[in-house]
Amino acid sequence: MCKIDVYTRPWCQSSGYVLNLLTRKGLTYNEINVTTDPTRESEMKNRSGRSNAPQIFIGHVHVGGSDDLMLADQSGMLDNLLATVLQEPAAEAS
């Protein structure tokens, strides 16, 4: 199961930045295009409390948008979060 969810808009440069950063780090993520599915946009708003994309979730942690991800990456907090979340066993589906 993918532990990274990224809500995106395909035309958004910030969304592209986020996806490129995660790819450069060798991470697998679940890209959720909120442009084509209004229910996914509502889901993003409910989960994040924000209406702009991208919004990034690592595990159950809301990292925030692209600026938040960039700051977390620069400070080393992103790598710490990834190490913690990606070592957790995946929750079993019931």
Descriptive overview:
- The chain is 47% helix and 18% strand.
- It has 94 residues and is of the alpha+beta class.
- The chain has a single domain, classed as Glutaredoxin, CATH 3.40.30.
- Strands 2-1-3-4 form a 4-stranded mixed sheet, with helices on both faces.
- β3 and β4 form a beta hairpin.
- The mean pLDDT is 91.
Notable characteristics:
94 residues, four-stranded mixed sheet, Glutaredoxin, 47% helix, alpha+beta, 4 helices
Ranges where pLDDT stays below 50 over 5 or more residues in a row are none
Strand order of the largest sheet: 2-1-3-4
CATH architecture: 3-Layer(aba) Sandwich
Query: In whole angstroms, how far apart are the ends?
Result: 13 Å
Form type: globular
The whole-angstrom Rg is: 13 Å
Characterize the main sheet. 4 strands, mixed
**What's the CATH H-level superfamily name?**
Glutaredoxin
Kindly provide the name of the CATH class.
Alpha Beta
Percentage of residues in helical conformation: 40-55%
For this structure, the CATH topology is Glutaredoxin
Average per-residue pLDDT, rounded, comes to 91
Number of domains: 1
* Helix count, DSSP H or I runs of 4 or more residues: 4
Beta-strand level of the residues, as a percent range?
Answer: 15-25%
The tally of beta strands, per DSSP, is 4
Q: Which class best fits the helix and strand makeup?
A: alpha+beta
Per-chain topology:
Elements: E1 4-8, H1 13-24, E2 30-33, H2 38-48, E3 55-58, E4 61-64, H3 66-75, H4 77-87
Parallel strand pairs: 1-2
Antiparallel strand pairs: 1-3, 3-4
Helix pairs in contact: 1-3
